[in-house]
Amino acid sequence: xxxxxxxxIRILTIGAVVWASPGDLSAQVLRxxxxxxxxxxxxAAVPSETPVDEGGSAELTVRVVVPEGHHGYLExxxxxxxxxxELTFPTLDSQVVKVREVSLxxxxxxxxxxxTVLRGxxxxxxxxxxxxxxxxxxxxxxxxxxxxxxDETTRLCYPPRTVPVPMHFQR
Length: 171
Prior knowledge:
Blueprint: H1 4-19, E1 29-31, E2 34-36, E3 42-46, E4 49-51, E5 57-65, E6 70-73, E7 86-88, E8 97-103, E9 108-110, E10 115-118, E11 121-130, E12 140-147, E13 149-151, E14 161-170
Parallel strand pairs: 4-14
Antiparallel strand pairs: 1-2, 3-5, 5-11, 6-10, 6-13, 7-12, 8-11, 9-10, 12-14
């Protein structure tokens, strides 16, 4: 049986996600009598130039920094309510590049949320497979990292957001 507090957190999380319309995925939070935007994470490819081997595959490390006093989700949680970090390449056709998550940061189990969460800094390792070297994009490519974070003090979860992860591919 779930505690009333855990149930309330889940209802608020679902409500925040349902409340956000696709055209406006920003939430406002009352802090000290003033409205403010939810904090953003930072995400970067490390290094920004990713070498691609002759077989058309590459390993990509993305370093994520979650703001102090917040956490992001590494999994959907026990009841499947949370939105974990997800890397996509919206400007590339899914037939051109396949993305596979190889490893996640260790994270911490948050029993109150019923999920494994990331606090602070963590690195994600992905394997990318291009359909051919001819399909390899040239110049700057922007991946997108979608995430959901929650405030550690208020336990408020913000609607999902997406940040760009710029990188270059090289043969």
